[in-house]
Amino acid sequence: MSVQSMTGFTRASGEAQSSRFTWELRSVNGKGLDLRLRLPPGLERLEPAVRQILGRHIARGSVQVTLSVTRTGANSVQPIVNEALLRELAELAQRLHQQFGVAPASADGLLGLRGVLETPEIVETEEERGAADKVALDALEDAAAALATSRKEEGWAVSLVLSRLLDTMEGLVQRVEVDPSREPAAIRERLSSQLNVLLEGGAALDPDRLLAEAALLATKADIREELDRLAIHIAAARRHLQEGGAIGRRLDFLGQEFNREANTLCSKSGSAAVSAAGLELKAVVDQFREQVQNLE
């Protein structure tokens, strides 16, 4: 199963005997599946079927769905101008201009007023309406499938970026693993140096107590668990990418875990090299989390 992005655009049309139906689908990031429908008056009856079709192709994202209808063929209709009303409104606009200095009315402004320009309603039989609905929904099926394909193509590109970022994370974890500051000899030398400084500061200090405190600090400063968890999370992210499907939320959770481990790594760091690797890791994790927001 492939990975899908949540962004995409598609358009598809279908033509019945007297109407052409054109669908436009625009998809962006969203926490769940949010369908925003814009259907022409009289076609609200299609809404349940529209939601069902889109739900089969898309699991997550904010999708704006727009249907436009153009009348065609012998049954196409021409708008009718109510000339009497238009004349009265034009005369009123002229008087307002002369008496009060109101800006002159434009032709398109007058034609846009309610009742001036009307489109006669086409009377359809039940059979004709059913045939037209089928054409419209078939076109939507094509548009939804094309949108899903577009989202899969972008999802594939995003998954490649995420794989490269995981490679970088893995390299940084390995750099910390082999850093000389984590060698037992280096740790002992560092602790011995710190103890010598403390012991020279006053004879009243208890060497055994200092050794116990030093051992406790060394335990708290150990980053073994953080490195192990990072390796586990990286493996889990790779597995999700390979399995595909709607993995955006799972990868987003792993991104939070990556960030938490990177912060702990920096706070426990005992050397400049480990701190630098931790900061680099945080930057890569930020890129990872940003890319994940695009996935379904």
Automatic annotation (TrEMBL):
Signal peptide: none annotated. Belongs to the YicC/YloC family. The lineage of its organism: Bacteria, Pseudomonadati, Pseudomonadota, Alphaproteobacteria, Hyphomicrobiales. InterPro entries: YicC-like_C (IPR013551), YicC-like_N (IPR013527), YicC/YloC-like (IPR005229). Keywords: Endonuclease, Hydrolase, Nuclease. Its cofactor is a divalent metal cation. This is YicC family protein. Residues 184-296 form the Endoribonuclease YicC-like C-terminal domain. Residues 3-157 form the Endoribonuclease YicC-like N-terminal domain.
